[in-house]
Amino acid sequence: MPQAPSPQAPSDNSDTAPGDHDLPDDLPDDSSVGGWADSRRPATAAKSGAKSRSKSGPWSGAGRPFGGKGRSGGRPFPAKGGPRGGRERARRDDSLIILYGWHPVSEALRNPARRIRRLLATENAAKRLAEAGLLDPSPEIVRPAEIDRLVSADAVHQGLYAECDPLESPELDAVPTDGIVLVLDQVTDPHNVGAIVRSAAAFAVRAIVTTNRHSPEATGVLAKAASGGLEHTPLVTVQNLARALEGLRDRGFTLVGLDSNGDVELGDLELSAPVALVLGAEGKGLRQKTRETCDRLGRIDLPGRIDSLNVSNAAALALYVASRAIKR
């Protein structure tokens, strides 16, 4: 549905006063911590205290998240010449996925399908990893400034930085047919896509389908906004969205496009799994071909004077409404 322009994401630094030095145990996801202690390796960071990594993941199968092989070397979102939403400032291998912050990095460490090539941690962050049993691989203990050089100026890294291989992108016909799938029609803002991934993980969405063009990479800003959701929600990339939608229909999915001018309120639709919720880009909404391919166009009626939502907020609300409708 047509969306208002995306407001600039609020700064994560607002939750913490400048000069804070310790990483508290109850650090919230979007908090920022300022200066850090020195770079000595803590005794608690020894590998002998590490716990084994979890073997669970979506689409189970020998610890792999997709229950089978995906595309060869499949990147959840293909590279488009560099990171979106804040370019990393130090030289690095652009084929790698960049993760920073507690939730993105810790969830990656828990995911046996995620191959981590390099892990940096400040002393306090390494202590927290040790307490969580997440010391495989062992982090390189560094000062905060060393991580600052590797991420964008406004990035809130919480003393953790990882370079990883991309997860495999599964084939469309491997998507399970027992729940909800999200389909993104040229949603390009990495903050929005990351927030959508986070909501999708919370609502146990079976997959997110997007095109391999006009979509951001699953790295950096997007991964931070996803708050670890990339490790739990498979991302499927396709060449042609209309054909992908037809493929989902052939497998039994009801295609519901979200549009402010939809012919029925989303909560009034009679839905049964599997369902594909289709969301368009902010400002433009669903493209004409996408609209024509959907089985129904649903709207979300709002009581206030503003009748549209940011696409990531609309996705979360639509997932809640559709999940309740399917359970009836």
From TrEMBL:
Residues 98-170 form the RNA 2-O ribose methyltransferase substrate binding domain. CDD domains: SpoU-like_RlmB. Keywords: Methyltransferase, Transferase. The keyword NAD does not apply. SUPFAM superfamilies: alpha/beta knot (SSF75217), L30e-like (SSF55315). Signal peptide: none annotated. It comes from the Bacteria. GO terms for cellular component: cytosol. GO terms for biological process: methylation; RNA processing. Residues 64-73 have a biased composition (Gly residues). This is 23S rRNA (Guanosine(2251)-2'-O)-methyltransferase RlmB. InterPro entries: Alpha/beta_knot_MTases, Ribosomal_eL30-like_sf, rRNA_MeTrfase_TrmH, SpoU_MeTrfase, SpoU_subst-bd, tRNA_m1G_MTases_N. Residues 1-90 are annotated as: Disordered. It comes from Blastochloris tepida. Coiled coil: none annotated. GO terms for molecular function: RNA binding; RNA methyltransferase activity. The keyword tRNA processing does not apply.
